[in-house]
Amino acid sequence: MSALPVFTRLLQIFGAAVVALSLAWWWITYQDVIGYNYLSFPDASLCLVSNSDICQLARSLCRSTHPLAIVTYWSASLWIGVAALCASLATGTARDA
After folding, report:
1. Highest mean pLDDT among 12-21, 61-70, 83-92
2. Does the reported pTM lie above 0.85?
């Protein structure tokens, strides 16, 4: 058995975990922003994939109300998880070829 299937599986698990944690982190950070209507859900969902000035402004407006004192979200975390999932697809495809 080669190491490639194990590596592919580890990339899948890592990527899925990072994406799931990023979604949870985004929700914890932006649920109050959405709840207080600083941003609509579609506008806040753009903050999931990028960091704009409007995202920073909305987060700063409700800084004192965040649970667990979480006030920042790093959008690159989602892209790291997506990249790991894409890499797992590429290594799985390379194995099948």
Report:
1. 12-21
2. no
